[in-house]
UniProtKB/TrEMBL annotation:
Protein name: TM2 domain-containing protein
InterPro entries, per the entry: TM2, TM2D1-3-like
Top-rank taxon: Eukaryota
Species of the source: Caenorhabditis nigoni
A GO cellular component annotation in the UniProt record: membrane
Classification lineage: Eukaryota, Metazoa, Ecdysozoa, Nematoda, Chromadorea
Cell location: Membrane
Family to which the UniProt record says this protein belongs: Belongs to the TM2 family.
Membrane topology: Multi-pass membrane protein
PANTHER family with a match to the protein in the record: BETA-AMYLOID BINDING PROTEIN-RELATED, TM2 DOMAIN-CONTAINING PROTEIN 3
Length: 198
């Protein structure tokens, strides 16, 4: 009789502290839909419109956006969103590539809210890899000229192994220091992650 309460207490503790199978405590962030300007409109383009031709379109507010509105006879250029000129869309900078790579990287882009276009407003484009992780070329040059003999420029760029070698050799007795000033000036020495200077 005395063992029963102890077993019940143990079972109760297990039920309360063991998570349910298939349950998840992870909260996923839901990004709000852009309903600003023309981004919140769904427009019907003429089926026979020619690429680049200016046409009149009828638009209604997307189902996901509040405050439904209908706009008739809006002027727009006949083209899909992925055919827009570069000035009419923004792309996320690719960060998983090297700036020395000659291949174009796939990244997500979205049309500006003032633009009317056919198809999905968010699309993928191949862009050159020219991302920056925040290293300043000016700061690198100043460090190279002033404290280059101690490897401060290479420490700043994250080039730890060569920076330690430069420190203990006193900048290669001045030769390494002068060479680094020239190589940084022409952009040959870059940050450790291959990113561009700002």
């Amino acid at each position: 009789m005395r063992r029963t309460p102890r077993i019940l207490t143990t079972l109760t503790a297990i039920l309360f502290f063991v998570p349910t199978i298939g349950s998840s405590t992870e909260i996923k962030e839901v990004k709000p839909l852009n309903c600003d300007g023309n981004a919140g409109l769904s427009c019907v383009f003429p089926k026979d419109c020619r690429l680049g031709e200016t046409v009149m379109v009828n638009c209604t507010t997307r189902n996901e956006c509040p405050n439904p509105v209908s706009k008739n006879n809006l002027e727009a250029v006949c083209r899909f969103c992925w055919q827009l000129p570069e000035a009419d869309y923004d792309c996320e900078p690719p960060t998983n590539c090297s700036t020395s790579s000659t291949k174009l990287q796939l990244t997500k882009c979205s049309a500006h809210s003032s633009i009317l276009c056919m198809g999905q407003r968010k699309f993928y484009k191949r862009v050159p890899c020219n991302w920056s992780s925040g290293y300043s070329w000016t700061k690198t040059m100043v460090l190279s000229v002033v404290l280059g003999g101690f490897g401060a420029d290479r420490f700043y760029l994250g080039l730890w192994k060569s920076a330690i070698g430069k420190l203990f050799s006193f900048g290669g007795l001045g030769v390494w220091t002068i060479l680094d000033v020239i190589l940084i000036a022409v952009g040959y020495i870059k940050p450790y992650d291959g990113s561009m200077y700002i």
